Amino acid sequence: MVRKKAPFPKSQAKPKPKPNPSGAAAKKHESRRPSNAERSAYFARREAAKVLRTVLQGDARRQAVASIKSLVYSPSVRNKKATLALVCQTLKHFAILKEVLESASVLNSKWKRQEELMYIIAYDILFGQDTSLVSGDAEKFLMRRKDAIQSALAKLLVRKKAKNVDDLVALYQPPGTYSYFPVFSAK
Fold first, then answer.
1. Which element (helix H / strand E) includes 72?
2. How far apart are CA 147 and CA 129, in angstroms?
3. Domain count within the chain
4. Alpha carbon 133 to chain centroid, angstroms
5. Is residue 159 part of a domain?
6. pLDDT tens readout for residues 162-177
7. Which residue ranges does the record assign to the NSUN5/RCM1 N-terminal domain (predicted)?
């Protein structure tokens, strides 16, 4: 019969755990792993930014490369449902987002290269779910400027004399387009 050795000889005491540092040092060393939902949202924002970049470049050249749906349903995009929703909703609010980010002076030289990603994240902050936005550098950058972005949106609402965001979206829509299908009553 083989006896297993004890982790510490009886003559030695177990080492005491080191005390936790307090203050900023504790927060710096404290890092938690993102949940699956947070990771999924992080990658969906990056994929949506790639699709949005392609769509906006095609719009600028007046020559579409592909439809939004075909870009989202390509094999390289993993989270297709969330990516499609983010792209469509960001495009719906695009004029508002562009004006808000410009008036808040958020798009500086560093983030100008990732302009599409900034639009996607700004949509999430202003109109979407901003609960899981602490993943990457771009998210942290915009979350630090969340108050400035929200106040820029409030100023835009006042300037355009809109009661809420839906009224503001309606102001930016081209005439003759509807964001919903009208319901006709049958008599």
1. helix 68-72
2. 16
3. 1
4. 6
5. yes
6. 999 888 888 887 776 6
7. 81-169
For 51, other C-beta atoms within 10 Å of its C-beta total 25
Of the candidates 57, 41, 30, 70, the residue with the CA atom closest to the CA atom of residue 134: 41
Tokens standing for residue 129: 């779910």
Nearest-angstrom CA–CA distance, 68 and 97: 19
Half-sphere exposure of residue 70: CA atoms within 13 angstroms, side-chain side? 6
Q: Over the stretch 6-33, which tens digit does the pLDDT of each residue have? A: 555 555 555 555 555 555 444 444 467 7
Q: How far apart are CA 52 and CA 24, in angstroms?
A: 38
* Distance between CA atoms of residues 48 and 85, nearest Å: 9
- Rounded Cα distance between 75 and 158, Å, is 44
Distance, CA of 107 to CA of 120 (rounded, Å): 13
4 belongs to a structural domain = no
Half-sphere exposure of 98 (CA within 13 A, CB side): 9
Nearest C-alpha neighbor of 139 from the set 108, 117, 163: 117
Q: Which domain holds residue 124?
A: 36-172
- The answer as to whether 54 is a domain residue is yes
With CA atoms as reference, report the closest residue to 112 among 127, 101, 123, 103.
Answer: 101
Q: Report the candidate in 153, 142, 53 with the shortest Cα–Cα distance to residue 106.
A: 142
Average pLDDT over residues 115-129: 91
